Amino acid sequence: MKNFIEEVTWRGMLHDVMPGTEEHLMEQMRVAYVGIDPTADSLHIGHLVGVMLLKHFQLSGHKPLALVGGATGMIGDPSGKSNERNLLDEATLRHNQEAIKGQLSRFLDFTSDAPNASELVNNYDWMKNFSFLDFIRDIGKHITVNYMMSKDSVKKRLSSEAAEGMSFTEFTYQLVQGYDFLHLYKNKNCTLQMGGSDQWGNITTGTELVRRIAGGKAYALTCPLITKADGTKFGKSEGGNIWLDSVRTSPYKFYQYWLNTSDVDAEKYIKIFTFLSKEEIEVLTEKHREAPHLRLLQKRLAEEITVMVHSAEDLENAIKASNILFGNSTSDDLKQLDEVTFLDVFDGVPQAEISRNEIEAGINIVDVLNENTGFMKSNGEARRALTANSISVNKEKVAENFVLSSKDLINNQFVLLQSGKKNYFVVRVV
């Protein structure tokens, strides 16, 4: 049995833990769960810390449960929120659950016959037939309102600074989550719940229910909420959340997010978001500090996590795409990009549209550079740039006699113009 608490401590993944948890885990194989609200049909990287906790738990010889909160997703957790969330119907929740299970299976094995194989559970399955009267009689009477009011998540929403109050529905969230723990304790022998540090109040309500109703002992463990050194929110880009789903966030953008982390953040993240050993990370960190300009930590972090969430092939394509802007890539490299990745790579680059009829007829490069796109201010400037051999079409140098035609299209839709090393322009054919 590996020491799970020791492992997550050196990785910077431990915020708070109930006394006696370490000893409890070292005695024999234990069962723990992390809850995930299925509010979308994809996880985002903010969920990854909880998933990594479950994987480390399993690697330490214990059994992880991933709880998809079909019931709690219908209510909305007040923790860390200033407003009540939108409620989802059952069909949407079921769809989201299946999509999330597919993503979790890249980390956790749900098909193994090992004693500590992962399981996916949904609290809607045991809450759907629980009547309101039964719930307030059998569960509600064991926890006082005073106890529930003392939780930080409730206090913040009821404070004078909160924009609006808190509905009774949300107020009961900690009771429903607490009942989840009790149910899993009774039915799955689950003795530990893990989550973000903002979940401490909800988790300890569960340990209290286990004590009062089942006469048992349950434990709580939380990880820190991940932050960025510059104070901006972890897991967000200008376009919003960084999702694990490749349609919502392309593997290229996913790779770039990790590649662009600061040195301080990279040192922290490589412990949390990879399974590299302590020794490997120490050696890598030392090398990085000696030559920070090489960005060894960021590259290794981005590589490890992109392969883990997507695939080795997606990583290779993301690296190729990255080299298009900053490396010696070729026309062939460019033509291998799919439409989404192409647009991601050249996000923010000026664009112009040309009709397909014109392209099929063929357009002289001087007209393309000036009249059709405005990339150059005049025909004279375009000719001078061509004479100086500084104009490229799809990464290949062209001369003044070049004619742009449909054979030059990338994905049958785009042409990449380039002046010098860094000035790009995208032509979109419509």
TrEMBL record:
Q: What is the protein's major site of localization?
A: cytoplasm
Motif range ('HIGH' region)? 38-47
The protein's location, in the record's own words, is: Cytoplasm
Q: Which CDD domains match?
A: TyrRS_core
* Domain (Tyrosine--tRNA ligase SYY-like C-terminal) ranges: 344-427
- Is-annotated flag, keyword Cytoplasm? yes
Residues holding ATP:
K236
Does Aminoacyl-tRNA synthetase show up as a keyword for this record? yes
EC number(s): the record gives: 6.1.1.1
Assigned keywords, A-Z: Aminoacyl-tRNA synthetase, ATP-binding, Cytoplasm, Ligase, Nucleotide-binding, Protein biosynthesis, RNA-binding
Reactions catalysed, as given in the entry: tRNA(Tyr) + L-tyrosine + ATP = L-tyrosyl-tRNA(Tyr) + AMP + diphosphate + H(+)
- Its Gene Ontology molecular function terms? tyrosine-tRNA ligase activity
Q: Which InterPro entries match?
A: aa-tRNA-synth_I_CS, aa-tRNA-synth_Ic, Rossmann-like_a/b/a_fold, S4_RNA-bd_sf, SYY-like_C, Tyr-tRNA-ligase, Tyr-tRNA-ligase_bac-type, Tyr-tRNA-ligase_bac_1
Give residue numbers for sequence motif 'KMSKS' region: 233-237
Amino acids binding L-tyrosine: Y33, Y173, Q177
Described purpose of this protein according to its UniProt entry:
Catalyzes the attachment of tyrosine to tRNA(Tyr) in a two-step reaction: tyrosine is first activated by ATP to form Tyr-AMP and then transferred to the acceptor end of tRNA(Tyr).
- Give the family this protein belongs to, as stated in its UniProt record: Belongs to the class-I aminoacyl-tRNA synthetase family. TyrS type 1 subfamily.
Assembly behavior: Homodimer.
Protein name stated in the entry: Tyrosine--tRNA ligase
Per the UniProt entry, what species is this protein from, by scientific name?
Answer: Flavobacterium fructosi
List the lineage, top down: Bacteria, Pseudomonadati, Bacteroidota, Flavobacteriia, Flavobacteriales
Q: Which gene encodes it?
A: tyrS
